[in-house]
Design goal:
CATH class: Alpha Beta
Order of helices and strands: EEHHEHH
CATH architecture: 2-Layer Sandwich
CATH topology: rbstp2171
Helix content: 40-55%
Number of domains: 1
Distance between the termini: 29 Å
Largest sheet: 3 strands, antiparallel
Number of strands: 3
Strand order of the largest sheet: 1-2-3
Length: 116
């Protein structure tokens, strides 16, 4: 199973420049998931704001799992453009993370293997 993946993002920044950047993210371990949750809580103290919670999850995930991030990636200097780019990146990452995470074996296959 491949443990890292490169994701390319293309967008126009607030100054009107076309930007192409690469992120390399790794699949999370159990320890990574705990660190993501801890970091998410430090980013978002308002537990009633679902949008803030989602932003905190995206930033925490990229911060913990980012093997390579572009120089413009900074938690302090994000505006709406960067947030949209990171949200898109996050959903592409989740699709990749989940595509080979596990295989559910139907109960009938388990019984067939036990009887042979």
């Amino acid at each position: 199973m491949k443990k890292t993946k490169s994701f390319t993002v293309n967008f126009i920044d607030p100054q009107g420049n076309t930007v192409t950047s690469e992120f390399v993210l790794r699949k999370p371990t159990i320890q990574d998931r705990i660190r993501i949750n801890q970091l998410k809580k430090t980013f978002n103290q308002d537990y009633n704001d679902i949008e803030a919670e989602n932003i905190a999850l995206i930033l925490a995930t990229i911060s913990v799992l980012g093997e390579k991030v572009p120089s413009w990636y900074s938690i302090q200097d994000l505006d709406e453009t960067f947030l949209k780019v990171l949200t898109d990146l996050y959903y592409r990452f989740i699709a990749w993370r989940d595509e080979e995470s596990y295989k559910i074996i139907p109960e009938t296959e388990i019984k067939d293997k036990q009887t042979n």
